[in-house]
Structure formats: C-alpha cells, structure tokens
Amino acid sequence: MTSTFDPRHVRRAFARAASTYTAAAALQSEAEARLLESLDYLGEQVPKVVLDVGAGPGHASAAIKKRWPKAQVIALDQAMPMLRQARKAAGWWKPFTQVCADARALPVADGSVDVIFSNLCLQWVEDLPAVFAGFRRALRPGGLLLCSTFGPETLIELREAFAQTDPAPHVSRFPPIAQFGDALLMSGFRDPVLDRDLFTLTYNDLPALMRELRAMGATNALSNRRATLTGRGRFAAASAAYEPLRRPDGTLPSSWEVIYAHAWAPAPGAPIREHGHEVASVPVSAIPIRRRID
Questions:
Q1: CA distances from 89 to 22, 49, 182, 268 (A)
Q2: 3-state DSSP call for residue 202?
Q3: Rounded CA gap, 287 and 290, in Å?
Q4: Element containing residue 98 per DSSP (H, E)
Q5: Where are the domains of the chain?
Q6: Helix%, strand%, coil% for the chain, nearest 5
Q7: Domain 7-152+173-203+257-293 maps to which CATH number in 3.40.50.150, 2.60.40.420, 1.10.4030.10, 3.30.420.40?
Q8: Terminal alpha carbon distance of the chain
Q9: Which of 159, 166, 218, 227 sees the fewest Cβ atoms within 10 Å?
Q10: pLDDT tens digits for 159-202?
Q11: CA 55 remoteness from chain centre
C-alpha cells in the first residue's frame, strides 16, 4: 500500500526547521497552551511518567516538568535537531529526558506511562487507529491521553488556490473530527471528549505564508507531491487565485482548524475493534464535541 506521507520528508523538514520553529509557530504555541490546561482533568493526581510525543523544541515538556517536578517527563521527537532545542528548554535545574523515536513505535514498556501529551503531531501519521493503539499499549489502565491535530479546514484557502493551477497536491488533507474520534474508539479508549478551534491568521501575501510554513516545518510531505520545485508560473497563478480573498485591511486570510481530544486508557483486557468487527459500542455521534472560533 502506498503511504500518504513520506516520513523521511517529514523528519527532514522538522530537522531543518528546528532553529526557526519557535519564532514561527505562534499558533502551535496557542494550541499547546490550551492543551496544557487539560492537565487539570487529573485533579490532585501527580503522574509518575509523562510522555510528550512530537515534543519539538520541548516547551510543553518544560511546562509539564515545572507543573510536576517529581514526575519523569520524556520528550519524544523523530527529529534530532528538535531534541537539541528541547535540551536547551529543559535546563539543568528541572531536566527532562529526550528520546529520538517515531510516534508510530513508542520505545516504552507496556503500561509504563501515566499521561501521553501530543500537540499537533498526529496530522503527520496516516493510520490513526494504529498510533492510538500504540498509545493505549504504553498507558497504564486509567492513564490520560491528551492530543491535538489539524482538521480539514486547515489551509483550505491555500489548497484551493493551488488546486486551480496544478493537479498535483500541495496541501495535506487532514482528518475530520468524526474520524479522529472514531480512531480513539477503535483503539479502545474510553470517555473521549473532543474540542474544535477555528483560527484565522493573516499574511501580506502568499510568499509570506509559504515562508512561515517552511520555518515551522510544515512543508508538503505528501508521497504523491510533485518531484520538482513549484515553478514560478504555477506559484504566480496560485497567488492570483488567492488574491480575491484579500481582506479590507489588505491581508490574506489563512484558516487553521485545531482538533483537541482527551480520553482514558481502559482497564486491562478491554477489547479493540479490529478487522471490521464492532467491539467499541459507543457511536461517534455520542462523543461530546465542543467548538470555539477565534
């Protein structure tokens, strides 16, 4: 089966963006702050082990370590240059562990993690049920999963502008909220709750948007992307297609949809739905979904 994403391209893009990511990723930082608020679901519980999957430069790991100084916090990322940035965020006074690994194959023992935190990482994996099954394996029974991903309205203006000028894809198609929730249920997580935020960022022109995407590592990682660089003619045509969206203040809008989820690892022996057999009996329509617009 052909992979939707080129994992080597994803890893290289984030490795190149390690030094520029923090300055460019204002939206990611806002989503991270909102996801960190969800740690309040633990109440007075103090976890022993917290795994930050797709930790990037380690800001969330540092915040978690500050919140729970006695917890073992593990920052996991597949891009080694990102982990070098995370090492700086850790500091010598409240250090956390850095591990270079793939979210699709967590190098931790079964039932060894109390909390898995993953901010805007899962949009780069295509088999969400498999990844969630790995998360469930790593979590102890009753452990908490907090995660976020981009939804299908993300960069919709950019996707449609390029679609008018080039049959080759330029922007990933991200899973809708129902698919995200269904993947949690398929993996056996219990009591999932999903939130959805819609953000609009603005840019002076299309080149400014593209520069920011490169600086945060969010380049075209689709396996069927065009093998050559986008030519000047196609880029100019895409810019012209984007132009009718220009706002009265002179800026171009860019939509970003962020989906958040929290769910709990089930008791030992709870089944997973596999091979088309319905094991999870809760319909996706029953998952609470909240929506905010910024």
A1: 11, 19, 35, 36
A2: strand
A3: 10
A4: strand 97-100
A5: 7-152+173-203+257-293
A6: 35, 25, 40
A7: 3.40.50.150
A8: 39
A9: 227
A10: 999 888 876 666 778 889 999 999 999 999 999 999 999 999 99
A11: 10
